[in-house]
């Protein structure tokens, strides 16, 4: 493992889905995980669950878009081994012609500015570890567009560009930048949030798709990338279910 087993791994958006699964996996790999998300009850319950399994976890309620709160959060650490920028998500699936600019703004705020806030605040601490890793959980939406996706696609392209640029800018310093770009992942909240709680629309996303990825699949991928020897930088890893050949070519059985 590149950083010492007891080093700190901070996971944003750890209250559900990929973030929660990543916290579990990194804790099992030996990291002291710090769970952050807005929903205090959820991250506290997860921290207790991880502790009950014999691992180290603490919860810290945080809104990644609140820059002052993020800066305050960062003061709690001297060194940090891993930062997983996972907080984000999609709002709406409207065409460009009718998309809500407020949705677009909020998606940019969480997916890009949130990642910027955490990364800026923690970069000195990651560097101080002598062996830090920044993970950006982007999306296949950060690499190609699809109809109805523009607001989310634009935001995830932003997250991708942040990761690529940061890697260029800090080369030579002891911090890796890893981008994990998941495709179709069925989690309890992603599609439901996107469609404002409309369960029917959310279910349609995965309808007939044999075995979409799970949050555990992505957490496993993140943990694998993070635990490579420190001279190995997995720049970008695109992970999709076998049934998804591209953002727009999905095999459905019904
Ligand atoms: C999720 C992938 O296809 O919903 O990040 O944009 S998709």
Helix-strand layout with pairing:
Elements: E1 8-11, H1 17-28, E2 32-37, H2 40-52, E3 57-61, H3 67-74, E4 82-85, H4 101-128, E5 132-137, H5 150-169, E6 175-182, H6 190-194, H7 199-206, H8 215-226, E7 236-239, E8 244-246, E9 249-250
Parallel strand pairs: 1-2, 1-4, 2-3, 4-5, 5-6, 6-7
Antiparallel strand pairs: 8-9
Helix pairs in contact: 1-8, 3-4, 4-5
Bound molecules: 2-hydroxyethylsulfonic acid.
Organism: Streptomyces fumanus
Domain Ketoreductase: 7-188
Family: Belongs to the short-chain dehydrogenases/reductases (SDR) family.
Structure description:
By secondary structure, the protein is of the alpha/beta class. Helix content is 42%, strand content 17%. The protein has helices spanning 17-28, 40-52, 67-74, 101-128, 150-169, 190-194, 199-206, 215-226; strands at 8-11, 32-37, 57-61, 82-85, 132-137, 175-182, 236-239, 244-246, 249-250. It has a seven-stranded parallel β-sheet with strand order 3-2-1-4-5-6-7, with helices on both faces. It has a two-stranded antiparallel sheet with strand order 8-9. Helix 1 links the parallel strand 1 (8-11) and strand 2 (32-37). Helix 1 packs across helix 8. The longest helix is centred in the middle third of the chain and has 28 residues, at 101-128. It binds 2-hydroxyethylsulfonic acid (8X3). 2-hydroxyethylsulfonic acid binds next to loops.
Shape: globular
Query: What pattern of helices and strands is seen along the backbone?
Result: EHEHEHEHEHEHHHEEE
**What is the distance, rounded to the nearest whole angstrom, between the alpha carbons of the first and last residues?**
43 Å
Q: How many β-strand stretches?
A: 9
Low-pLDDT stretches? none
Amount of helix? 40-55%
Structural class: alpha/beta
Biggest sheet strand order reads: 3-2-1-4-5-6-7
Give the rounded overall mean pLDDT: 97
Question: Main beta sheet, described?
Answer: 7 strands, parallel
Strand residue percentage: 15-25%
**Cα gyration radius (Å):** 17 Å
Number of helices: 8
């Amino acid at each position: 493992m590149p950083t010492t087993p007891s080093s700190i791994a901070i996971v944003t958006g750890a209250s559900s889905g990929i973030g929660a699964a990543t916290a579990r996996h990194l804790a099992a790999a030996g990291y002291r995980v710090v769970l952050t998300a807005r929903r205090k009850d959820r991250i506290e319950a997860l921290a207790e669950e991880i502790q009950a399994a014999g691992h180290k976890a603490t919860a810290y309620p945080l809104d990644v878009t609140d820059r002052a709160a993020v800066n305050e959060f960062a003061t709690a650490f001297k060194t940090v081994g891993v930062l997983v920028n996972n907080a984000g998500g999609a709002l709406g699936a409207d065409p460009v012609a009718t998309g809500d600019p407020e949705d677009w703004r909020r998606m940019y705020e969480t997916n890009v500015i949130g990642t910027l806030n955490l990364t800026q605040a923690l970069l000195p601490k990651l560097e101080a570890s002598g062996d830090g890793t920044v993970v950006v959980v982007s999306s296949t939406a950060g690499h190609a567009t699809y109809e109805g996706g523009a607001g989310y696609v634009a935001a995830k392209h932003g997250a991708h560009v942040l990761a690529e640029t940061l890697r260029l800018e800090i080369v030579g310093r002891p911090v890796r930048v890893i981008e994990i770009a998941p495709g179709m992942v069925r989690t309890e909240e992603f599609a439901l949030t996107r469609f404002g709680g409309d369960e029917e629309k959310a279910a349609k996303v995965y309808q007939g798709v044999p075995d979409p990825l799970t949050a555990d699949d992505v957490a496993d991928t993140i943990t694998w990338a993070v635990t490579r020897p420190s001279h190995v930088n997995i720049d970008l890893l695109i992970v999709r279910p076998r049934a998804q050949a591209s953002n727009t070519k999905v095999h459905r059985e019904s």
